[in-house]
Amino acid sequence: MLTKSLDAAELLAAAAQILDGPADEILTRFSAATAELIPHRAIAQLASQCAATPVTAVGEPALAKAITGADLAGLLGTVTAGQPWQGVVPIAGSIHPVLAIASDRAPRGSVAVFIRYDETPAAEAGLVQAMWDLFTTHMYRLTLEQEPSHLAQTRAVAQARNDVAAELGEAHAATLATLLGVLRNQRIDDTSARSMAVDLALNGLAELRNDSQRDRVLSGEEPVGKAFDRLADSLRALLRHGPVELELDAPGNDRLISAGVAHAGRVAVRSVVLAMLTQDPVRRIRVGWRWDGTELQSTVRDDGPGRLEDVLDLGQLAERLRLHEGDLDLDAVPGWGLTARITLKAHASPQPIQSDPLATLGTRELEVLERLAQGHRNRSIADDLHISESTVKFHVANILTKLAVTTRTQAAALYHATAV
Fold first, then answer.
1. 3-8 long-range CB contacts below 8 Å, 24 or more apart?
2. What is the pTM of this model?
3. In total, how many domains does the chain have?
């Protein structure tokens, strides 16, 4: 067990002992080794490169068994690799103080989450970060030793399963949010509220059945205006009985769009709207679509507090979009609100090799990278661009992923070598 007075030799000896054991015991050994350094009730990991069992948790049995990938995916997409994050998040149905440590030593990253007893700052988080980077590298290399076709198949199955589970969860959340809006509305009497709640529940069940028969047919096409109308109808139902005003900006054309892209766009927008509704206060949400025949761009804006940490679950959506060659770009401006821009391509075809490695970055990401290359820290970049520091962290994580580098220094060097 590591103590708070450990030295480098003790750290290396502990890491070697953990790696020497069976692969399926690494997390258990890691938890035991850090029990005194960072007291915790349980520890969970999300290693998204592992398709069969991406989520593992050890510790108090009831708590460890209840932890799911949905609990951790938001942290994977939000916490910056190499920068341990402490806070409180919902896990296993309750709010817990946590220490989250992300690593980019695998292509799709990994995150270890310590579910702690209290919010006392963890002074030795940097040492634990170094160990987690080492374990992530080791576990990723173990996955590469599997037979390639089997690995690809299990990854595809796992991704499909995760997508379906996430979409069902979001659909259920939308129905529940609508029901709560009715039941909390003081202007509706009890009898009317019960009647409306029954109707909404029946409509929600019918919509789920329709989605399974209609939205999952990915080979068909429909006019983009009609596809947007279906999104508008679902959002109006979601917000009808609450205080939030919905503004809609329909597509400027009626070109045909594939059912698969339209479905993904509706799911993504609904995810963002549900996340925005968790903020207080939000009084207006504006949703727009633009479709040029090859790319669907969705924009969702609110007038909330403009703090990215208030919508941490959007990190899960960003990860899902990235796996399907989509993109989520967030701008949180304190006092002005949050803007989410979602990009989805018409088909997931192999991307041509870019002569300019920076060509994959969006405008805001280029602005962040330019200042990062000048040696600015996150707080300075946030002040300069008038966005929140958590938004900067989100952009930096996306920049490292898109440039296929692991550190800020490497990203800065690539910028200096490429930018004119």
1. 3/36, 3/37, 4/36, 4/37, 4/123, 4/124, 6/37, 6/127
2. 0.48
3. 3
We report the CATH number of the domain holding residue 282 as 3.30.565.10
113 within domain boundaries:
yes
Domain's final residue, options 116, 145, 174: 145
Q: Are residues 170 and 315 in the same domain?
A: yes
Hey, what are 316's tokens? 């899960």
Instruction: For 351, list phi and psi in degrees, rounded to 5.
Output: -85, 140
Quote the tokens at residue 190: 């009890």
- Evaluate whether residue 162 is within a structural domain: yes
Domain that holds residue 411: 358-420
CATH number at residue 79: 3.30.450
In whole angstroms, what is the distance from residue 113 CA to residue 30 CA?
12
Q: Based on the fold, state whether residues 175 and 319 are members of the same structural domain.
A: yes
The span from the CA of 87 to the CA of 346, in Å, is 38
- Residue 128 in tokens: 């634990």
State which amino acid sits at residue 298.
S
| Interatomic CA distance for residues 106 and 350, integer angstroms | 21
Tokens of 277: 């509704």
Q: What is the CB-side half-sphere exposure of residue 418 using CA atoms within 13 A?
A: 19
Q: Is residue 3 part of a domain?
A: no
Express each pLDDT in 243-295 by its tens digit: 889 999 999 888 899 888 888 898 889 888 888 887 878 899 999 999 998 99
CA 294 from centre of chain: 25
Q: With beta carbons less than 8 A apart as the criterion, state whether 196 and 179 touch.
A: no
179, 234: one domain: yes
Report d(CA 312, CA 307) in Å as an integer: 10
CA 412 – CA 420 distance, rounded (Å): 14
- pLDDT digit string, tens, across residues 45-61: 987 555 444 688 999 99
The size of the chain, in residues, is: 420
Residue 2 lies in a domain: no
Q: Which residues of the chain have pLDDT under 70?
A: 1-8, 48-54, 76-77, 108, 143-188, 193, 196-219, 309-316, 319, 323-324, 347-356, 419-420
